[in-house]
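Hey, I was hoping to borrow your eyes for a little while. There's a protein on my desk that I can't quite get my head around. The fold is given in discrete form, as structure tokens running alongside the sequence. I'd be grateful if you could look everything over and explain what you see. Here's the protein in full, and shout if anything looks odd to you:
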Amino acid sequence: MTGPSGHPVLGELTPVEDDASRVVDLLVEGERLLEQARVQGRGRAVRSVVRQPGQNVVLLALPAGGGLPEHDAPGPASLLCLTGEVVLSTAGASWRLPAGSLHAIPDARHDVLAEVDSLCVLTLSAAR
């Protein structure tokens, strides 16, 4: 299911607190989101952790077998796998991202599949 923007993550985001001084423990918040995704029976749970002009940083909790369905990139973006392992795929290529790996999101339709329970950081930047 995709949100009103046509992007499966952007349409699910709730407003983030506008407190630039707060620190977010991504691993603690990620575990909470993974549990939420499991309880809800969804393939993902998402939370915007930083939102500022020109940039949105989103924490993705993807239970094993979950992920993001095929969709278009909303602009310049990157995907960092914090824990677990995910596969980022387009029609012509795929990239395996184990924990600690980062990859630019291609400017093409793509999807993401979690091989195991995984936490990822999606960074979306305003087009230049």
